[in-house]
Amino acid sequence: MTDEPVPLRIRPVDQGKEWSEETLERARAIIARYPQKKSAVMPLLFLAMAEDGRLTSTGMRQVADLVGITPAQVLSVASFYTMYKRDRTGKYLISACTSISCMLADGDEVFEAIETEAGVPHGETDEEGLISVEHVECIGACGGATAVQVNYELIEGVTPEKARELVRWLQQERPQTVNTDQMQEMFGGRRSFDWAIAEEDSAVGPFPAFPSLGTVGRNGERSQ
Ligand code: FES
């Protein structure tokens, strides 16, 4: 036993860039949807991620300034949720659910198929920066297990074979945009809700949709 103090490990946060007027305009439009500015913190963090490719200290400071809270408060939100990335991910982030409902529907095998086909283990990105892979906790689509997301766009009823096809499709086709409807058609199976309402940016409710992250832009481009 030693009396030596244990050094504190503080994770460095990358600097980002100041937001353009266009991004500020998008931020103001997001804030206007909420009765209180600070309620917009979470979508604004996705906007900050889209701006710099990951969450940066500059991005979080701008969110804080816009909604009138401290950067430390913004960081406390950002560091709680795993979907906010402080490291750059690949062009395609594949998230496979391995929580209980998906696990009972071959979720571990689906995840293993993705890791093997991509040649990328959990939490890593391939050398080219094309594909990142992660296993995640329940993403709210248990009725459509096994659930997989690409850039947070959902695919339900994925089998190991379809998961391998999905990875090969991303590697070979390198689509400019990814969206739920197309990927569900190509690689999905049984869905939670067939009554989902199509959104104009192609993501469907009631699943999480991230227009502020810009996985699918109004003009069909992806924003990062
Ligand atoms: S357990 Fe996989 S989506 Fe809920």
Features:
224 residues; alpha+beta; Arc Repressor Mutant, subunit A; Glutaredoxin; 36% helix; globular; disordered C terminus; binds FE2/S2 (inorganic) cluster
Gyration radius, in Å: 18 Å
E-strand count = 5
Give the strand content: 5-15%
CATH architecture call of the domain at 92-187 = 3-Layer(aba) Sandwich
Q: Residue ranges: pLDDT <50 for 5 or more in a row? A: 203-224
CATH top level label of the domain at 92-187: Alpha Beta
Give the CA-CA distance, first to last residue.
Answer: 50 Å
Percent of residues in helices: 25-40%
The averaged pLDDT comes out at 84
The number of helical runs is 8
What is the 3D form? globular
Q: Main β-sheet: number of strands, strand sense, barrel status?
A: 5 strands, mixed
- Give the neighbour order of strands across the main sheet: 2-3-1-4-5
CATH superfamily of the domain at 92-187: Glutaredoxin
* Class computed from helices, strands and strand pairing: alpha+beta
Explain what you see:
The chain has 224 residues and is of the alpha+beta class. Among the domains are: 21-78, Arc Repressor Mutant, subunit A (Orthogonal Bundle), CATH 1.10.10; 92-187, Glutaredoxin (3-Layer(aba) Sandwich). The chain has 8 helices and 5 strands. It has helices at residues 21-31, 41-52, 57-67, 71-78, 100-104, 107-118, 160-173, 180-187; strands at 92-97, 124-125, 131-136, 148-150, 153-155. Strands 2-3-1-4-5 form a 5-stranded mixed sheet. Helix 1 (21-31) packs antiparallel against helix 2, helix 2 (41-52) runs antiparallel to helix 3 and helix 6 (107-118) runs parallel beside helix 7. It is globular, with a radius of gyration of 18 Å. Residues 97, 99-102, 138-142, 145, 147 line the site of FE2/S2 (inorganic) cluster.
